[in-house]
Records
---
Amino acid sequence: MPPRRLRICSLLLSLAAATAFARAGDLPFASSRIDEIIQRDLRQHKLVPNPPASDLQFIRRVYLDVIGRIPTAEELTKFQADRRKERRAKLIDELLASPGHESHMFNWLGD
């Protein structure tokens, strides 16, 4: 197996183990453990992470990934008006619970 693939497989296995062994219902613990694994891998390979995505980049990416389309102007305006610290996480939760996600997954898995 090429070194890059081996490194990616190792990282994915570490992430899977971190989430599998996380205490039930302890999302902050699991999240911090995953962050530690990623940071360790970045340091080990002398990589610099990209800066966080802007709100416009984030909303476009999350809509495309989760429900398979770009956000409408109304959805974008609603997101930009939301000033909660956890607005990104809330948007992801909303999209995952939406009929659009179900439809997108049905189409994706059906291909």
---
Amino acid sequence: MGVFNFEDETTSIVAPARLYKALVTDSDNLIPKVIDAIQSIEIVEGNGGAGTIKKLTFVEGGETKYDLHKVDLVDDVNFAYNYSIVGGGGLPDTVEKISFESKLSAGPDGGSIAKLTVKYFTKGDAAPSEEEIKGGKARGDGLFKALEGYVLANPDY
């Protein structure tokens, strides 16, 4: 099995606590509201903390598909959230799982700095393709911007 790491960092004008609330605390309800392709997020097993399995149902290419996410860490104090895609349509055939480690911290002018590490755990010595990496980054960036936009459009949130 190979492990391939990718890191990304972005900034937001939204304070870490408000952004974390949208990205983590309320995400199961907010994401289907702000991302048209995502129909639902439901807990299949667990209570929302580490070890919880969530089913994310989405439409891609006119077909309804799903991903299974396993929550690895929820740290509300330090604004950190880690999870892995462990099954479903979001995993390429050459990948066992994709893990995401995210952390928000205070940024300039009351905003946030978001750091993300993505780890592809591949089968054998396969490497993720550039297309898979670019597609995953685009989806992640879109999700982040959609939730950030929701918070900005709803000042009382």
---
Amino acid sequence: MTSLVYAAKGIRILGIDPGLRITGFGIVEKIGNRLVYIGSGCVVTGESGLPDRLKTILDGLNEIILQHKPEQVAVEQVFVNINPKSTLLLGQARGAAISAAVLHELSVYEYTALQVKQAVVGNGHARKEQVQEMVMRLLGLGERPRPDAADALACAICHAHGGTGLLTLSARNRSKRSKRL
């Protein structure tokens, strides 16, 4: 008699914490009610001009998507800063990050920093160190990830815990709309 063994199929989630200088990324896989750490890091843009920085973000995330093959993407939303110029620049970095996901026809989910912190720490006003500590514990990491990578992992964890996000850009819906045109 032959027994069949089925591998548990998880959902691979790429979390992104967009930034013009440093864009954090983190990949987790949700298998049942478990979260498995896949990888994390940062795309560093340097001091070049805005178009070059945006291209670095797009290219860096494109490479990460090709390498890790996520099925869904969770992105932290921009908070309105005191400085409107900074808010607009950060929005452009987010646009580059979302574009990388959309180019691969991935579903994109957005979460506020408050939602992410609430989901991961239990306190929407948690400090960065608290987020890093909880990410380390939840994923069984040996050390705290860099702040930007920790925020990206926290965003992925928030999504994995069932957050629906404020805005969903579904690849399926986009393809349906394009067929109607």
---
Amino acid sequence: MVLEKRGVVKPEEGVRALLEHLGEDVTRPGVVDTPKRFVKALGELTRGLREPPPEVVFFPLEYDAEPGPVVIENISAVSLCEHHLLPILLSVSVAYIPGDGVPGLSKVIRLVKWAAARPIMQERFTEWLADLLMEKLRARAVAVEVCGVHMCSFIRGVRDEHHNMVTRAKRGDIDVKLRCRRPPLCR
């Protein structure tokens, strides 16, 4: 990992120290490997910081008519709140008007999941995702709606399990009504 390359304490040692600080007995059998598992899990949740974006495969339109919007609704993704490093469960809906060719459906979903795999502030993430999709999908227009359930306010702070945050962004001339549903685990 990056921390090890800089000669800093190994991440597992930092997690172990944090657990001890919280009062946990790090020698207990159920906890002894927790630092290693935690670092691995955090690596998975932030893979978008280290991995390149997925390549997008395009298919020819094969018709002369002007293409209308393509809508993909309720893509499930997980991110982290950049302020607390707690999970944000996301449901993302996107619409785009194809430019030169149509991207493969699975690639659009993979791109959204890759983009979410990092610490985010949802408002900024939604704007960035719209820009990213415009570029990577070679779209003429894009609309994005993100519905997020933030664990930082679900399990701590105000402890409200009924709220969700919805953010929207548009690029170009696209007339669609997106409606994300609350992420599946939170319904």
